Amino acid sequence: MTGKPLVKGFFDPRTWSIQYVVADPKTRQCAIIDPVLDYDEKSGATATIHADAILAYVAEQGYTVQWILDTHPHADHFSAAQYLKDKTGAPTAIGEKVVEVQKLWKGIYNWPDFPADGSQWDKLFARGETFKLGDIEGHILFSPGHTLASITYVIGDAAFVHDTLFMPDSGTARADFPGGSASRLWSSIQEILALPDETRVFTGHDYQPGGREPKWESTVAEQKATNTHMSTCKTEAEFVKIREGRDRTLPMPKLILHALQINTNAGRLPEPEDNGKRYLRIPLNALEGAAWDIR
User: Fold this and answer.
1) In this structure, are residues 188 and 147 in contact, taking their beta carbons and an 8 Å threshold?
2) What does the DSSP assignment read for 53-96?
3) Residue 80 and residue 98: Cα distance in Å, rounded?
């Protein structure tokens, strides 16, 4: 690991998501990771409140946006990647296995003309590929399990793991979405935990167990020692049993069918129809067997 980037997290309480601005302090080049486009499912309204706050912070710090990065196509919020690209001109990127997620959801949404080739992003990262953020070296870990396409961005001494590991008191991410696998998630986590102990780990969600304040930074050493799943499960079989048992009790994220049609398209909203309005497409009974939210 070379370099210690400056990391600023932005917490979205509506989706429990953390968005990041990661910067090289020397060159003032930065990356925006997993930005949120605001969406109110009750009214159908979209907004750019969180994305604009990020842009204001970037301007205040005198940063130049070099990358707009998504770790995977999100199931619980819309991506603001396209909006931020339009505002900054910076290239968008995601892992190359996004094409597998696109193919899967192309069928679920019955989109015969949807280009499931990853062309919606400027860059598709491969496992092990290296890149630069300013003068800081970065590389890609392929981290499937939560989704088919999840990746970890390791930038200097910081790893952005999103829905793979949570804070130690919250354990690990679910693996029951279409294309998910608890076994693959275990393997992905082992690769992350093989990074040096001092590696800073930045997660993409925090659900504030016990009502505590939101947190999003830990270390590999802390995760190995105290993560509620990884410190107690000594084998893959133990982990898979716990993870799959937990997943069977979880209702689907309330925005999964809304969000995937935006996020498999790199954050682009549907094109307006002949009346000037944009419409989402919600398939019925597409996620059979999911637990119901009875609240």
Assistant:
1) no
2) HHHHHHHHHT-EEEEEE-SS--SSSEE-HHHHHHHH-PPEEEET
3) 17
Question: First-to-last CA distance in the chain?
Answer: 46
Nearest CA to 243 out of 292, 175, 189, 195 is that of 175
Q: Got the DSSP string for 190-215?
A: HHHHTS-TT-EEEESB---GGGPPP-
19-33 as b/e: b if 16+ CB within 10 A: bbbbbbeeeebbbbb
Q: Is 30 helix (H, G, I), strand (E, B) or coil?
A: strand
Amino acid at position 240, single letter: V
For 81, phi then psi, to 5°, come to -60, -45
What does residue 118 show for φ and ψ, rounded to 5 degrees? 75, 5
What are the φ/ψ torsions at residue 62 (nearest 5 degrees)?
70, 30
**Amino acid present at 213:** E
Domains and CATH numbers, the chain: 6-255 (3.60.15.10)
Q: What is the pLDDT along the chain (295 residues), one digit of tens a residue?
A: 579 999 999 999 999 999 999 999 999 999 999 999 999 999 999 999 999 999 999 999 999 999 999 999 999 999 999 999 999 999 999 999 999 999 999 999 999 999 999 999 999 999 999 999 999 999 999 999 999 999 999 999 999 998 899 999 999 999 999 999 999 999 999 999 999 999 999 999 999 999 999 999 999 999 999 999 999 999 999 999 999 999 999 999 999 999 999 999 999 999 999 999 999 999 999 998 888 887 6
Please state, in angstroms and rounded to a whole number, the distance separating the CA atoms of residues 106 and 283.
12
Which has the closest alpha carbon to 221: 152, 159, 141? 159
